[in-house]
Amino acid sequence: MSDENDSRPDRRGARSFEDVKASRLEALEAEHRALRKAAKKIKRQKAKEAARERARQIAGEGDFALDVDTVATVLVALVTRNRDRLLKTVEGVHHADLADLIEQIGSHDRSRLIKMLGSDVDPEMLSDLDEATRDEVLGYMRPEDIAEAVSELETDDVVYLVEDLEPEAQSEILDNLEAADRAAIEQSLAYPEDSAGRLMQREMVWAPPFRTVGEMIDWMRSTDDLPEQFYNIVLVDPVMQPIGQVALSRVMGAGRHVTLEELKDADLTIFRVDQSQEDVGYAFNQYHIVSAPVVDETGRLAGVITIDDAIQALDEEAEEDLLRLGGVGDESLGDAVLKIIGRRFPWLAVNLVTAILASLVIGLFDGAIEQIVALAILMPIVASMGGNAGTQTLTVAVRALATKDLTRTNAMRIIAREAAVGLANGLSFAVIVGAVGWIWFDSAMLGVVLALAMVVNMLIAGLAGILIPIGLDKAGADPALASGVFVTTVTDVVGFFAFLGIAVVLLL
Description:
By secondary structure, the protein is mainly alpha-helical. The chain has 23 helices and six strands. The strands form two sheets. It has a three-stranded mixed β-sheet with strand order 1-2-3. Strands 4-5-6 form a three-stranded mixed β-sheet. A hairpin with a 5-residue loop joins strand 2 and strand 3.
């Protein structure tokens, strides 16, 4: 009995020790959980701060910059793979801003974003992407998702999306479309690239001229086939040839009994499907057109071109001219390295040949340069000034040719004007560089040589800057593509030859 009593304190002590140990372990685990939670919170906070800092870099500055909070939320959603949060965030973002965001982020985030969106990709966003990014994004999407997205777009936007894809990729997307949509897009793709046929949309509203305003309004209210946006009603004859168009504003302001014939515009501009988008853009800009019909080879109505597509065509042509003047061709920031190298290398090679030609001219006067070292120091001034003057004239001439402001009628007047400008600038800078040469090398005659060479090269630069693009345009070549190389060659060769030749005559 006493033994049992003696053992009870030991059992109570053991239980007490176990309770303390368990309590201590629970406290340690709770502390560990708290530490883990705090660490995760710190990690999330750092991730948010990093995302926000990166969002500031992506968003840019200005009144129409991307919203920093929105960009940061998208980046965090990508990291945490929170699709619901991503969908909720991009739902309120304009498709043009979303396209800018996708272009700014890296390929890894771009791939993750598109795959997380899946079938919820905004179709209009796809048509706002630049060409290189668009092709990359389409590569991340499943064909059925692309088909579902493009089914909500106008035909001109669908053509823009698929026209540069490989034939296999095109077929894979088109196979998922309805037969009527596929036939319309394939027909548009059959027209020449950069033509009105590629630019037009087939969704349009047309009517016979004898239809009344009341009948037209009732029909538009009852049909489900209206385009998402349209500005005019095209009037057609019995064989579907356009004979006029009526602005919606006139329809809404007229009585129900008035016929569309009575409301049609006096002027009607019609484009052919094979007409260049450059001509389309020029006509829209010149005649302030809002929308215009496009006809096929038989003169039947094939589609319409609207002002937004015409503005896009104008932007593309202007951008193309600018890039070609720099010798880079059709290039964008999203292009791969090898693709960029392939486009830039040919013109750099041509430039190398012209540089060698200029060096050969210098080589003709190597003896004079050995005797008067100052010639080697001063001759780049003449060539550089001539090159800059020629580029100024060239830029104005190429743009004037593109906008059809420089024509055969005013060509001689513009040429004479540029020659006068070149001569005046040459005389002005001749005084400046002549004085510099005189003071620098303490030789009045060297200053005279420099001044005379400056006048000659500035005059030739002005003439080359206007005559070369005009000549290339007459020959059927693109002035923006080849003029720069020729003008630079002329100003370098003439500048070196004039300076060194005059120096030989007057100084040796």
